[in-house]
Automatic annotation (TrEMBL):
GO cellular-component term (any): cell envelope
Protein name stated in the entry: Sugar ABC transporter substrate-binding protein
PROSITE patterns, sorted: PROKAR_LIPOPROTEIN
PANTHER family in the cross-refs: D-ALLOSE-BINDING PERIPLASMIC PROTEIN-RELATED, GALACTOFURANOSE-BINDING PROTEIN YTFQ
Chief localization: other
Similarity annotation: Belongs to the bacterial solute-binding protein 2 family.
């Protein structure tokens, strides 16, 4: 069981009434009157250091967070997407939120390393930080209040176990990875490598940076370099798997028959492709955890114990029938 992280209540303020006052004082952070909610109550200000446009999963996740942290729910969410995935723009936004004196900060990191300084500054300012999706490396749980994400290691292990069943006599495969160094990429490689059977042979792995276009180009090259003798692709997100399917079709091969493609995320586009037989296995990486994030932020601000790691449940889809049945109810 991951150790719980007790977020310190504001120093020297034991009484609830005083604590409420400090929240108001902290949240305004300036001479500006604190924003108020529909019920006239003071809003909790939350800085969201986000990734920004990146693909279907990211759009669903960031919209879910913004929908959850609404003024109706008592929040003033300040959304700060990165500049084209640039970590420096995230660090600038993070620092600004500390200087503003927001009540809490949400972080979806574009890089795994380089966060110690700003996380230490947030702790000194007694601002709880909640990691969304992406982790930090090295993973020092004392630097943040909690991380909320599906289990990347378990999700990719489930994909490998399906691949083992599909190819009991072995196969050649390649891996299309997300950007190098990300915690989710490292964990997806870890889960897959630990579970995949020895008679599945990894010919090569290469980043296609979550992109359909880049994955199509990368896999076209891989197919040519290996004489089309590749039976399986482990694509670490849906967009890259859809790019691999395009490359298979352009090579005159049939996805699902000549090459089975596994993806992670579970977006509607991927499930539609699975229903059509263009993908073969889709592992959901559930992006809808805004309500979980609200509970963590409220508990941290109330000085309650908070789990340092909160795993978001996710499912898998292993057939066209499963995808077809799920599609009408999908929320992203
Ligand atoms: O960190 C989660 C990953 O980032 C998703 O799997 C991918 O689609 C997104 O870009």
């Amino acid at each position: 069981m991951a150790p719980t992280t007790r977020f310190r209540a504001f120093t020297g303020l034991a009484l609830a009434g005083t604590l409420a006052f400090s929240l108001v004082a902290c949240s305004s952070g300036s001479d500006e009157p604190a924003a108020s909610g529909d019920d006239g109550g003071e809003l909790t200000t939350v800085g969201f250091v986000a990734v920004g446009p990146e693909g279907g999963w990211r759009t669903a996740n960031e919209q879910n967070i913004q929908d959850a942290f609404s003024t109706e729910n008592g929040f003033d969410l300040k959304y700060a997407p990165s500049s084209n995935g640039d970590q420096n723009s995230q660090i600038t936004a993070f620092t600004s939120f500390i200087d503003e004196g927001v009540d809490a900060i949400l972080l979806s990191a574009t890089e795994a390393t380089g966060w110690e300084d700003v996380l230490n500054r947030a702790q000194e300012a007694e601002i709880p930080v909640v990691l969304l999706d992406r982790g930090i490396e090295p993973n020092d749980e004392s630097l943040y209040t909690s991380r909320i994400a599906p289990d990347n290691v378990g999700i990719s292990a489930s994909a490998a176990e399906w691949a083992n069943e599909q190819f009991p006599d072995g196969a050649n495969y390649v891996v299309l990875e997300g950007p190098p160094g990300l915690s989710v990429v490292n964990d997806r490689n870890k889960g897959w490598d630990e579970a995949v059977s020895d008679n599945l042979v990894k010919l090569e792995s290469q980043s296609a940076n979550w992109s359909t276009e880049e994955a199509k180009s990368v896999f076209e090259t891989m197919l040519k370099a290996n004489g089309n003798d590749i039976q399986l692709v482990f694509a670490q997100n849906d967009e890259m798997g859809l790019g691999a399917a395009l490359a298979v079709e352009e090579a005159g091969l049939t996805p699902g028959t000549d090459v089975k493609i596994i993806t992670i995320d579970g977006t509607q586009a991927a499930l539609e492709a699975l229903a059509a037989g263009r993908l073969s296995f889709v592992a959901e990486y559930n992006p809808l955890f805004g309500e979980d994030a609200i509970e963590v932020v409220n508990a941290a601000l109330a000085g309650e114990d908070v789990e340092s790691s909160i795993v978001v449940p996710s499912t898998t889809f292993d057939s066209p029938e499963a995808a077809t049945a799920a599609l009408p109810d999908r929320q992203y």
